[in-house]
# Entry
Amino acid sequence: MSNTSIRDSVTDAEWQQRVNLAACYRLVALFGWDDLIFTHISAKVPGPEKHFLINPFGMTFDEITASSLVKIDLDGNKVSESPYNINPAGFTIHSAVHAARQDATCVLHTHSLNGVAVSAQVGGVLPISQQSIFVLSSLGYHAYEGVALTTDEKPRLVADLGDKTFFMLKNHGLLTVGESIADAFLAMYMFEAACTIQVRAQAGGGELIPIDNKILAGAQMMAKQVLKMSGAGLAWPGLLRKLDRRNPGYDQ
# Structure
């Protein structure tokens, strides 16, 4: 199916969601958070149906386009014509979150080196940077149970996530949830930054300075002001302009 026929066969709202999700995939690659063809970013298709968009399995993140994204249901089955297949096993985590969280328009999961490094630490994210206080304001943890291939892990995963925005899968990687694709990406930017700063600070070998608990107590309010007010409205359009300069074509 050509780009023209896909665009003509979906609503304007779905096409815009496709464009933003394709951009998100390419931005993840641009920032170096991708893991070859593995991990996923999924987004709900606007409308009453529980349909989602996800990457075609085998494409690298930097070549995803709006028209190549595959529309699926909560079981990972294709619900519209597409020449591409997906990795159903890889959708296990995403389907659990989408089913449990009505606000989870976008679920973004990474296996970045710094994210996995911190996920392997007993203490998890430490309160040592401004970025970390945003993460700690809404962070959940999930113990490693092996590669997420079976559905029996879903209830435990959902319980550990709760209503959090940031989710660390121990020994595995990072996950963020957003009411929009822009929100999920900006949250992941903060998550990745907090982990990268932590790994570098630890590598420096000096004693780390913990942030005062009084500051941490007000982190949720600060996170809302910084992430919500400037995310989708300001940061995301700027990121799309960056992508237009570096890797255009995601909107095809």
Notes: The chain has one domain: 3-246. Residues 219-246 form the longest helix (28 residues). The two ends are 12 Å apart (CA to CA).
